[in-house]
# Entry
Amino acid sequence: MTGHPRFLMTPGPLALDDDVKAQMLLDLGSRDQEFTKITAFLRGLLLELINGGDTHSVIPIQGSGTYGIESAIASFIEKHEKPLVCVNGIYGERILKILELRGISAVVIRSASDKPVSVDAVKRALIEDKKITHLCFVHCETTTGIVNPLSELVEVSKQLRVKTIIDAMSSFGAIEIDAKKSPFDVLITSANKCVEGPPGVAFIFASMEELRREHSLVESYVLDARDQWRNFESSGEWRTTPPTHIIQACKKAVELLMAEGVARRGDRYKDVKQKIIKATEKYASPLLSCDLQSPVCLSLTAKGFIESQADFQKLYDHLSNSNIYIYAKLHQQTQSFRIGCIGSIKPDWITKLSEAFESFFSGADMPRKRGLSFSNNILKEVS
Ligand SMILES: *Cc1c(COP(=O)(O)O)cnc(C)c1O
# Structure
């Protein structure tokens, strides 16, 4: 191994558990029975986690989370269909972009990135436009960490006979999702968020009804989720080279998730989040109110001080000099930056984070001060 362990506090990829990493030391043959069994076992565990049993199946797709989104869109929306996309952050925008690239015309409901998607607005749109076939939305918009109302949105879609395609990339594993209580059609997650695995594979949960539905040509070999599913069901094998080491690690990661439980994992993240809020409160404040925050990541603002990527870069560099790695980009629209609460974050990392904030904001690296001095009151005044 090169170098020392980095203190990764980003909303995926994240600091992996040693047991998860250890699985990647074993080289397995991609079509060997031992690996085929690992894939089957992992799929079974994932399905159990979502209470998908006999109603749903799960299809691993090679690549990052976005490959899973694009695969789901390619496989479960036809060219002539009309999806409604809810957008309140960059991942909603990405769904829209993928639809556009595939020549599917969508309608959009936009809301501010610090406001959840409005169920009423969605309901009205679905009632007004009977041609809408799908509702696409992001469960936890990792842009700010805002949580959108999954069960209400699925319920309203069911009532109005519209299919649901959900990006649950950063919520699956930390927020309870139950395929029986919220019978979604398609839901996508990936290995490297709350599953706490390494990056490189996405998981598409799809209803048996959708999987068995006749679908016209997908116009992609690698993104054809239904074809991948048929292969898993018939031979247990992947169609093309699987990320063997990643799948081995994911099996372990999902076992650890099941042992911990989704609710308890969510609570662990919430606890980390509270500690980060405390550690940084002298200099930064949460963008979202408590009721809108997800446990996955925390969006902070330091208005008056960190307002551009250049300002933020100074903080980022200062933190990385202390071996702390937060998400590297400022969200311009809200002037917020993100700290991940997921993965194997050790308590002393948060102490180090606190010290690094202290030394940054009292040191020479500080961007602009605009005549303000630091105290909670003044920060409240400017934010
Ligand atoms: C991480 C994430 C994705 C996928 O991003 P990749 O970089 O492709 O893994 C999509 N949607 C949300 C909400 C995410 O948090």
About this structure: Residues 12, 64-66, 91, 138, 142, 167, 169-170, 190 surround pyridoxal-5'-phosphate (CB under 6 Å). Residues 262-280 form the longest helix (19 residues).
